[in-house]
């Protein structure tokens, strides 16, 4: 054996404890880091490629006609919208800002809001950036996951609604009606804007818990040992989720705020959650979690036999009655005359259209109710 080899062996023999400690540290840090990065790469690919289901055609409804409007998003990007006034044969009840789902546009409000417009509500609907007639910055690609850019769009719509209400000498308060990603944006902006008095969320979700759901769902694709990926502790998934969003913020050049955290911090206000019982894209548990975090008053309807955002298609009459009654109860109570004594002024009091219901599930038959 050469003198060099002998020296190396002597050094290893004298410092074996240091070598063991160093190799243990490497094993505890490098190996988990490699595993985490592998999960992160796959998770980012889920964010890049996972598309929501195409549940219906883009022209399966008659459009509502309104006044074209334009306003800037919170970051200055020009957005297009439409103001639809309440029917002339009914008393005005209030204003509702409609936030459409991903890959849709402002005109989809007709599918959801026609009964509200007939009931006396003005509707402000608009195109998120990269949709319909609204512009989009060249360095940003809209995705089905709500981002800080979508919040800027919703903030711009809320600011326009407030200015319009002031100009009309109406009370500066309104409701928000969001579908899927649009519901997420509405909830997140409501956290900072108390003038959004009522929220209706159809297919809403929190991006962080949804991505974690997808990571667990597709883990078998890239995890070699089934026992390992089925028994990761909760802290592993939380750390993985944090790591993934750190890289996502750098890659997609935007932030992905958490809806569940927003609801937890929000001043309680009326919220109605709607979710399809057979939603294979976003599990019902997503809305159940948000419902559990929300303050009172709140309602949750699990629409029987429906998939993602299909409740309005499968149960149109019940859907219309549920949403209209909810806004009527919490945004614009019916005003009824009070029979006063002779010689006294006639006053008016606000009474809700329907009694308050604080149930998790509002049952509805599979057949369309009459």
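^ Assign residues to that structure.
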């Amino acid at each position: 054996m050469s003198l060099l080899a002998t020296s190396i062996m002597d050094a290893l023999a004298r410092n074996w404890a240091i070598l063991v400690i160093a190799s243990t540290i490497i094993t505890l840090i490098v190996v988990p880091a490699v595993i985490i990065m592998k999960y992160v790469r796959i998770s980012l690919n889920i964010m890049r490629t996972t598309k929501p289901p195409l549940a219906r055609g883009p022209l399966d409804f008659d459009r509502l006609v309104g006044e074209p409007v334009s306003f800037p998003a919170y970051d200055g990007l020009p957005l297009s919208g439409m103001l639809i006034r309440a029917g002339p044969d009914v008393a005005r009840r209030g204003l509702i800002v409609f936030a459409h789902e991903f890959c849709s546009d402002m005109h989809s409000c007709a599918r959801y809001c026609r009964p509200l417009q007939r009931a006396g509500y003005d509707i402000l609907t608009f195109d998120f950036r990269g949709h319909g007639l609204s512009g989009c910055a060249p360095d940003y690609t809209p995705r089905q996951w709500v981002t800080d850019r979508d919040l800027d769009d919703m903030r711009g719509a809320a600011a326009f609604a407030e200015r319009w209400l002031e100009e009309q000498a109406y009370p500066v308060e309104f409701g928000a009606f969001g579908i899927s990603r649009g519901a997420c944006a509405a909830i997140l902006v409501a956290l900072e804007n108390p003038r959004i008095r009522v929220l209706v969320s159809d297919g809403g979700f929190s991006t962080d818990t949804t991505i974690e759901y997808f990571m667990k769902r597709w883990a078998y694709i890239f995890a070699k040992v089934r026992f390992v990926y089925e028994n990761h502790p909760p802290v592993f998934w939380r750390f993985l989720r944090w790591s993934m969003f750190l890289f996502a913020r750098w890659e997609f050049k935007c932030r992905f705020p958490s809806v569940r955290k927003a609801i937890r911090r929000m001043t309680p206000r009326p919220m109605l959650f709607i979710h399809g019982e057979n939603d294979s894209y976003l599990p019902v548990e997503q809305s159940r979690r948000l419902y559990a975090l929300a303050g009172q008053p709140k309602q949750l309807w699990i629409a029987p036999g429906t998939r993602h955002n299909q409740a309005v298609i499968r149960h149109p009459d019940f859907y219309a009655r549920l949403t209209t009654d909810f806004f009527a109860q919490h945004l614009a109570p019916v005003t009824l005359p009070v029979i006063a004594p002779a010689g006294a002024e006639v006053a008016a009091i606000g009474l809700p259209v329907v009694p308050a219901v604080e149930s998790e599930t509002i049952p509805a038959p599979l057949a369309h109710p009459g």
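The first helix runs from residue 3 to 14.
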